Amino acid sequence: MISKNQIKHIRSLEHKKFRDQYGVFVAEGPKVVNDLKGHFELVELFEGEDADKVSFLDTPQHLLAIFKKRDSSSALQSYFAAMKRQQPTLSLALDNVQNPGNLGTIIRLADWFGIEHIFCSPGCADIYNPKVVQATMGALARVQIHEVNLPQFMTEVQEAGTDFPIYGTFLDGENIYNTSLKPHGLIVMGNEGHGISAEVAKLVTHRLLIPNYPQGRETSESLNVAIATAIVCSEFRRR
Known about the structure:
The chain is α/β, with parallel strands linked by helices. The protein folds into two domains: 4-68, CATH 3.30.1330.30; 73-238, Alpha/beta knot (3-Layer(aba) Sandwich), CATH 3.40.1280. The chain is built from ten helices and nine strands. Helix 7 (130-136) links the parallel strand 5 and strand 6 (144-147).
């Protein structure tokens, strides 16, 4: 039987302050919990009615786990080591993506397209927010997420490896379907309302446009950032 103190503790983990304080996060449902088990240290597991009492979901899935957060510092070192060996990969950078659902979906997309690293600015939603964890559908197990000073990081990756393009999506960019794309580099996706910030945009070497159809037709102002990420990643992998 789950205790009142346990309920209080789990409820507190809805807030970043307490997730940071205890170094843990919550995951729910058989799919997500089982995927994370082999990649994160399991602290506690609740099943059945006990899990339902503390669920953050509208429809509880009868399984809730508390995991320790992962230290990504060694993965970041490996990333730069690969750069210096001239073995760059395709990665994502997120500039202030604030909606938890969008962030979780982007992590899931990265997993689908074989992108193993995502670099988030401090203004992004917390990757351990329960809504983010749920939206990843277990992809958090296979994708390394790093919080970085994005302009500084972008400068460092260009210095670490030659011929390392940095792509970004803009309304004045080149049509992505007519542009030469390399199989490696960094793809920057911007904030839901403001796009890529000016400081980050200065460091983008290849500005891309996802054109509407037909061009010139009156249409929506922009695409949802998760949908735009899916289109861009798909086009890179198609090449």
